[in-house]
């Protein structure tokens, strides 16, 4: 075997400028030891300071004359090597989404440092029960109370936890030492895993699957056994038994000695969900999410690696738990925007799961009540296999939905945010002691403060956004955290009528209390859920009947069954239609469908009222009909006509600069570069050039919709193309230019098929 004598190493700094590999000589003792993926220490820069880096290649080809190469100092202590698959995944991410290799590596490594296992001590009896009893008798005779107590316990149990003996039995260290030296007991250390799942519940078998459910499971597992690896999309209304299908599929995978990753949006990772998996798979299921400590994360990865876990549940980062024999990835609520990373590399969990499934020869199961346009489009094209679940196994029908035209309300003299019909229905619920949920389809808080006299709006001095009004007269910038007090007078004209624009959940709560005397209201929004567990606490209180109404933002429409909720009101359904990106219609449809799914989950029939200023928008019309197919047909047409994903692909290039003029000039240069297609370099460049000229459209550069954040100016360019690889080619070219131009103060980021406004 030829051993490479040189290592190409990537230095651990998340910065464009050093995102290339540096070559080092491998010292004698490490020849044949150093492998791809290992974390090493190397001298770097002028002062030869030791830096950490990852070996990406071991080779026999020196890039420079031997004498110019520095030597690897050693393997970094306590570091974890990157496994080959993780290395591939990182390289794929770098290529597909545009980021530094180091940023990609950091993303695919759930933990970077090895952690010590936790230890606990235990006391083991070395004598037989008989013998122990006689030693106990002796101790009693000599009136050695402490000894006697332990010995008594040991006649019953062979092993006792050290803590129990010390605390509950009050044994001193000296007593234990003397027992140990007399050969009665042994004190041992035992290591154990930190387990973030703190549940105790009896195991429960699955339900007998319905014909529809069994059909899906049968198909997926028989494909698997035949060696076919596919992506499946389960489109099923809430409560149609998708989770039951996942559970049953996992069971099938476990029988085949395979492990599974279950992705769910962070917000849906609740006690109830976890409990359901725990009841089915006991200790062989665990979780992975951002709230775990480094030690807990490390231990879950160790358990997975050693085959001691069958299932891991978590948000998108759970994808990177290293299973030896991954069989299936499940992605529930596949349409959720939280599956797209907001930091570099801006990966989408669905695409990444697809790549990972390919790498590991696993299958991928997506599920949603309102599939993303991406997934459904692929299913329509036959790339995914589509299953539909149309019924609820528990009976329970969909709620009756009606739409209220708020324009008419206003015309007929009702200025309140509650339509007359909603007020009537709420009165009825209050009388019957049933519960109502009111949903404000809006992100963020109460909104901006403006002068009613001159129109002046309070803005952040560092960002291009208005300040948001908070309790106690505070005004906060949600982008940089800048805070100031609400002025008494307009800074512009001196008028005292400088007021908040009232449309937040807090104001709704106020108006409810004014309209319905004695009403008990719970509120759930970013303000009331800032503390840990407050989300769960509010839901539990509502579920326990502590309030008549729950008012909230989109947080309240997820998961959770409240059997006593028989009315759901959406206060202004079109608010989310005003978001300035092409997914606004899709998001509105999803939110409304989910909100509608909250009513009538129990035995009582439910009713849903959608109030809106745009009753004829297809997103609202089809959500009211709960007709996903009809919505999809109209939405995909809009995407085709407008040229938006999933019909084409989009790449946003965000250029940021502390200097407005420089940022502007630089984005102009990048735009020219893309237009010119760069001078041909070699070989078939001209063909590429033609393809790019034919297949790519460039939009911009322009100031981003938020033109400044934290005193940094932001410029955007969009490239659109039906071919993803044309976009990655442009990205590579721009990256090369960026590197060669030696740009220091400016920053560049790529975002493929962006979600939300940038
Ligand atoms: P989804 O994930 O689509 O919202 P769930 O799997 O949570 O649906 O199922 C909704 C409810 O129906 C749950 O209470 C579940 O226990 C029950 N359920 C699912 N499948 C069956 C079945 N085959 N027989 C009886 N009850 C079922
Ligand atoms: Zn004013
Ligand atoms: Zn700001």
Account of the protein in words:
It is a single chain. The model is unreliable at 678-684 (pLDDT under 50). The two termini are 51 Å apart. This protein has five domains: 6-108, 3-Layer(aba) Sandwich (GIY-YIG endonuclease), CATH 3.40.1440; 118-192, no CATH class; 211-389, Rossmann fold (3-Layer(aba) Sandwich); 400-446 and 502-641, 3-Layer(aba) Sandwich (Rossmann fold), CATH 3.40.50.300; 649-752, 2-Layer Sandwich (Alpha-Beta Plaits), CATH 3.30.70. The longest helix has 17 residues, at 660-676. The chain has 22 helices and 31 strands. The strands form seven sheets. A seven-stranded parallel β-sheet has the order 12-13-11-14-15-10-16, sandwiched between helices. It has a six-stranded mixed β-sheet with strand order 5-2-1-4-3-6, with no helix packed on it. Strands 17-27-26-18-25-24 form a six-stranded parallel β-sheet, with helices on both faces. The protein binds adenosine-5'-diphosphate and zinc ion (ZN) (2 copies). Residues 207-210, 213, 236, 238-244, 393-394 line the site of adenosine-5'-diphosphate.
């Amino acid at each position: 075997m030829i051993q490479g004598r040189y290592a190409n190493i990537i230095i651990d700094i998340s910065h464009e400028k050093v995102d290339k590999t540096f070559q080092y000589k491998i010292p004698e003792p490490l020849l044949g030891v150093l492998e791809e993926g290992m974390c090493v220490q190397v001298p770097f820069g002028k002062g030869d300071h030791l830096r950490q880096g990852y070996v990406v290649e071991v080779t026999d080809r020196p890039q420079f004359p031997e004498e110019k190469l520095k030597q690897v100092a050693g393997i970094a202590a306590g570091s974890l090597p990157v496994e080959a698959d993780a290395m591939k995944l990182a390289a794929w991410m770098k290529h597909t989404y545009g980021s530094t290799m180091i940023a990609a590596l950091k993303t695919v490594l759930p933990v970077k440092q090895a952690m010590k296992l936790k230890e606990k001590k235990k006391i083991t009896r070395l004598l037989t029960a008989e013998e122990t009893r006689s030693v106990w008798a002796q101790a009693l005779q000599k009136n050695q109370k402490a000894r006697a107590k332990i010995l008594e316990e040991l006649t019953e149990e062979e092993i006792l936890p050290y803590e129990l003996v010390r605390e509950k039995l009050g044994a001193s260290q000296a007593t234990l030492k003397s027992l140990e030296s007399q050969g009665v007991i042994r004190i041992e250390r035992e290591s154990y895993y930190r387990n973030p799942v703190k549940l105790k519940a009896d195991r429960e078998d699955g339900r007998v699957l319905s014909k529809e459910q069994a059909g899906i499971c049968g198909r997926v597992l028989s494909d698997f056994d035949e060696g076919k690896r596919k992506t499946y999309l389960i489109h099923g209304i809430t409560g149609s038994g998708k989770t039951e299908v996942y559970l049953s599929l996992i069971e099938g995978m476990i029988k085949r000695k395979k492990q599974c990753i279950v992705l769910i949006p962070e917000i849906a990772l609740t006690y109830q969900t976890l409990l359901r998996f725990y009841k089915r798979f006991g200790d062989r299921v665990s979780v992975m999410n951002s709230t775990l400590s480094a030690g807990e994360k490390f231990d879950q990865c160790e358990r997975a690696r050693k085959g001691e876990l069958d299932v891991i549940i978590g948000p998108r980062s759970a994808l990177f738990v290293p299973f030896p024999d991954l069989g299936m990835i499940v992605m529930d609520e596949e349409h959720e925007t939280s599956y797209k990373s907001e930091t570099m590399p801006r990966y989408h969990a669905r695409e990444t799961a697809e790549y990972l499934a390919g790498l590991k020869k696993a299958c991928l199961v997506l599920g949603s009540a309102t599939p993303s346009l991406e997934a459904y489009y692929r299913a329509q094209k036959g790339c995914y296999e589509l299953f539909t679940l149309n019924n609820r196994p528990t009976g329970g029908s969909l709620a009756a939905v009606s739409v209220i035209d708020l324009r008419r309300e206003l015309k007929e003299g009702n200025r309140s945010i509650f339509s007359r019909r909603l007020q009537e229905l709420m009165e009825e619920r209050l009388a019957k002691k049933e519960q109502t949920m009111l949903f404000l389809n809006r992100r963020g808080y109460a909104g901006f403060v403006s002068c009613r006299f001159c129109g002046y709006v309070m803005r952040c001095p560092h960002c291009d956004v208005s300040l948001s009004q908070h309790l106690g007269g505070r005004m906060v910038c949600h982008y940089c955290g800048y805070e100031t007090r609400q002025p008494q007078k307009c800074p512009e004209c001196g008028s005292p009528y400088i007021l908040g624009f009232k449309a937040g959940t807090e104001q709704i709560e106020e108006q409810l209390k004014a309209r319905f005397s004695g009403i008990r209201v719970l509120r759930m929004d970013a303000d009331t859920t800032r503390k840990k567990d407050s989300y769960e606490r509010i839901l539990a209180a509502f579920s326990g009947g502590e309030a008549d109404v729950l008012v909230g933002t989109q947080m309240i429409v997820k998961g959770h069954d409240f059997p006593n909720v028989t009315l759901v009101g959406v206060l202004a359904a079109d608010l989310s239609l005003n978001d300035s990106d092409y997914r606004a219609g899709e998001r509105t449809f999803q939110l409304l469908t989910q909100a509608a799914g909250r009513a009538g989950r129990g035995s009582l029939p439910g009713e849903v009222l959608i109030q809106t200023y745009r009753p004829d928008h297809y997103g609202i019309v089809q959500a009211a009909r709960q007709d996903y197919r009809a919505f999809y047909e109209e939405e995909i047409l809009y995407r085709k006509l407008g040229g938006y994903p999933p019909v084409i692909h989009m790449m946003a290039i965000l250029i940021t600069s502390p200097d407005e003029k420089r940022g502007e000039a630089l984005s102009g240069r990048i735009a020219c570069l893309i237009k010119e297609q760069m001078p041909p370099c070699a070989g078939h460049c001209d063909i590429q050039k033609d393809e790019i000229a034919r297949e790519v459209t460039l939009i911009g550069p322009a100031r981003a919709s938020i033109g400044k954040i934290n005193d940094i100016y932001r410029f955007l360019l969009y490239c659109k193309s039906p071919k993803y690889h044309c976009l990655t080619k442009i990205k590579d070219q721009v990256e090369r230019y960026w590197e060669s131009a030696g740009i220091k103060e400016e920053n560049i980021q790529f975002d493929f098929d962006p979600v939300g406004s940038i």
